């Protein structure tokens, strides 16, 4: 098994071909805590509202809020006004808990982030960007050069603190495969992004707590749970399908090839790419061996001929 190569070597090997980049949690770890949002929501472990997540085997706030609201409709039909009021208050409490969690784990402003220009230099080596993250780090990086990276909302207008909707016809080379905290779906399935720099966190908090709207993002869970969520949104499905259309070289940074994202690797190995470059954080022989086994497994399942090479992520100097 060959040792991981340096990023410069990977760039030299792919000179003149299309390069696509997919980033995972490791891209944001320096500034964003990718612990479960539920763990940072401030809910007591023994309260019924918290136990509902365990009952329904999910960490998706939207799923539980919808369950509470549906239950309130049922109680209303059985003339139980006190129960309707109680369930409504619990749904409101859960929205506030989500706001609390977002504020607890995410930087408030882009100017708190050091190294944005270094990160921009890194992503500028790629023609297409895919992210599995729902934080704003990649969003803030790409805003350092908005003429190079587009998210597909460019043909939409600004209305009520939102821009959009997203349209496949708009120029786009940035794809939020698992959604984002700044993305909100309309009743018709269209998606708009919340704007409000520099206080985007505050703007999103008001949208959740005051307007009762929830961001479009794929919460932690199994690969099948995530895939179900993706297929339920035309926007997410569009971003997901774009992976399979990539050709040339495909790079993965900040991800452990975890099986909870098996759906993503199935797309990569079924894509038109001819080589996968997989970044490894502080590579050791044991770590590379484990990752090699996982990628081989995905490759066999997809019946793919795509070869892969490991790259030392430290050599990319993403955040300095």
TrEMBL record:
It comes from the Bacteria. This is DUF4917 family protein. It comes from Bradyrhizobium betae. The lineage of its organism: Bacteria, Pseudomonadati, Pseudomonadota, Alphaproteobacteria, Hyphomicrobiales.
